[in-house]
Fold this sequence. Notes:
The chain is α+β, with helices and mostly antiparallel strands. The protein has helices at 155-164, 182-189, 217-232, 245-255, 267-281, 327-342, 416-431, and strands spanning 4-8, 18-24, 31-32, 37-42, 47-51, 56-61, 68-70, 74-79, 204-205, 210-211, 235-243, 287-290, 295-298, 304-310, 313-315, 318-319, 356-360, 379-383, 387-393, 396-410. The relative contact order is 0.11.
Amino acid sequence: MPEYKQFPLSDTAEGLTEADILAWRVKPGDTVTVNQIVVEVETAKAAVELPIPWAGVVTELHVEPGQTVEVGTTILTMDVDPDGKAAPAAAEPAPAAPAAPAEEEMKPLVGYGSKAAGTTRRARKGAAPAPAAAPAPAAPVAETPRGGYVPLAKPPVRKLAKDLGVDLRSLTGSADGGVITRDDVHRAANGSAAPAVSTVENGYDPATRERRVPIKGVRKATAAAMVQSAYTAPHVTEFLTIDVTPMMELREKLKKSREFNGVKLTPLAFAAKAVCLAAKRTPDVNAVWDEAAQEIVYQDYVHLGIAAATPRGLVVPKIRDADSLSLKELAVALTELTDVAREGKTTPAAMLGGTFTITNVGVFGVDTGTPIINPGESAILAVGAIRDTPWVVDGEIKVRKVMQLSLSFDHRVVDGQQGSEFLADVGALLADPAVAITY
């Protein structure tokens, strides 16, 4: 006799409450093994591949790609005993049957307690009986969507449609990917015709010459974090322009050395090393304001965040204990970090627990900016483009390699003197790397 198990969207140990389904790696009827990757989801942190904890046959996929689902929601059902060879389990009291055969209660959020009211979802054609149903010789008959069509709509929209008596199967979604919105449901309830959406592709509507993209995933999380930081930490930004000709000369010399053979040595690696050294002399920039405990926490380590632009938005993976690494080790770590970020494979764990961040705006040809501090940190350094610039050297004007730096810091933790000293230290190390031997 088949034994069905439901696979919920799990909390990936980062306190998230929802994720977007990017792509399924399996389909109904597929045989899967333990720990096989079955789905790729995008959380507020990164794209994550989820493995299945059982072996068996997939019987139903409950969510379409592109939908946003809450943690704890059943996304897949499978038969873990397709051959009927499992030993019969001891009988358990059957839970109360659902209100209607076509609906099943969704599980509560993992780690967030039980919900007062469950969200319901129509079953697909050929769906397996839910494990929560009372044992019966035959599975309950579920309402079959027309032609196997499953309308795309978020749980709140489904509830609204149910409350207003609107059949979602009769609607054409106006959002990107044909997702049904609240406005679509209200128009149907009021007897209004839905707007024409057949010409909308990838969010672009030729009629309005506009492209609409849902705010979700990494972009949504980044926006929330930046707003929180801007309205919580009193930002102060200072600027410094420096001659980095000696640094660039040292870079060319090291690139030709045997020790750095095959290593991608960038100005960002020098900036990372300078930050780690300067943070030892001005530990306030590497501290954090703990509002709940009313304490300032001084951290005797530097988990260095590097802001990286990816197709999914800005992410800030960390180099753990960057202060313990040599210049060469930092260069290698930076290359690995940025390559993984661009591929969209940065794990959520790799973006947690930073103490200081560098954003390299110079790669875009930008001179400087006023960066926003990452929540949980007290300072961020922007590294600008290196340009050939007229510069006074020993009373004479010469063409030199010049860079601009900008440091934003939390004035609750870092005073103006401390911020200025730190920025001056970083600048001195980049203007003349030999200064490092005096630290």
